[in-house]
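User: Predict the complex with 2-acetamido-2-deoxy-beta-D-glucopyranose.
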Amino acid sequence: MRSISEARWFAVTLTITTLSAITISAYIFKRKFNALKSKIHELDSSLKSSSDQCSSERRGRIKAQQLLRKELTRPKSENLNLSYYPMIPIGTIQSCFSTRNGTPRQPLLVPLARACLVFNTSRVPPASLEGLSEYSHCWIIYVFHLNTNLEKMWKHPSKSGIKAKVKVPRLNGGRVGVFGTRSPHRPCPIGLTVAKVEAVQGDMVLLSGVDLVDGTPVLDVKPYIPFCDSIQDAAVPSWLMGDNLLSVASVSFSEDFTSSLENCWITAEKNSLYASPDEFQSLVKQVLSWDIRSLSQRNRPHEAIPMKEKDQLSDDTSDVDEHQDETAIVHEREQNTLNSIEVVYHLFLEGLNIHYRISDDGNVIVEKVSTSAVYDKKTNPCNYLTWKDRMQ
Ligand SMILES: *[C@@H]1O[C@H](CO)[C@@H](O)[C@H](O)[C@H]1NC(C)=O
Ligand SMILES: CC(=O)N[C@H]1CO[C@H](CO)[C@@H](O)[C@@H]1O
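Assistant: Here is the predicted structure with 2-acetamido-2-deoxy-beta-D-glucopyranose placed in the model:
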């Protein structure tokens, strides 16, 4: 009996042990399974998120490609969205030429024609001028600021009345397309000239040989580089060959001239770019050795327009000079004792009013100088004393 009960007990124990083992393994298995499951879940969501990222990247890529395609197929003008380029001058010219009339038609014709280019230091730091003095000449890009249609040009470009053709003095009134000339009356009233660099000091550059009127706003200055800026066998139209058409036969001074200049010099000296009355007189001679009269003045010298009317003339005249224009007519009619009419012309240099006559055969007689209230000027930022030790 006993052995039976022992055997049963053994069997029970065995069963319990087996069950426990099963339970334990089941437990271990479940834990492993859970860990695996969470790992799978983790991998799963990581996979999902990276595939989400991929597709959003893809969407982004497609969008960018679409934008690029759109940009490339769009018309250029719309692309840039710039229909005008507002440029502010970097400086202003203080020149010996007080009015357009008398301002040479081309650069370097009047070697003594001096000007001081005063830079606007709030836009251009003086260090920008470093190196410029190592060149003998520079290009100057400027605005034809005295064109009376300027405002109209900006505000109503279609009504500004720019003419396709202009009369050129050397063709005696013949017309040439505006881009075949250097007329100031052009769709964009920008001028280009070259000048001799005499000296650079601080925010100022002393120039000579200029054909710029006092107050000219300057947009840019670039060095003149002979090996690429000078073209040996460049062609020009025949009407531009030989300048003698516009030079005069002689320039002489009356006795009154010297004494009247001495008188004026007392006040003129402090603002002058010239060392002495003699040097100023040399300037007058150089300027008047070219016929600075306008086309109609030369052709009809006796139909003089009184001086007081000059401001009423407008730029709209079609008789536009190559480099200046009819508004510059400054002369008057004088009845002399022989009862013949002679014309006295006026040239304004550094605010001084120079009276001269010109005979039919091209001899200029400079009569006198007077101060002019019209051009009585502010104090100039530079005068001869500024440059004295820099000029020989
Ligand atoms: C200098 O430039 C500033 C703008 O940068 C302008 O306000 C100022 O009027 C200019 N000065 C002269 C003398 O042109
Ligand atoms: C985005 C932008 O600069 N738009 C300008 C494009 O140019 C016109 C004038 O031509 C302006 O009015 C817009 O503001």
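The pocket of 2-acetamido-2-deoxy-beta-D-glucopyranose (ligand 2) is lined by residues 81, 83 (CB under 6 Å).
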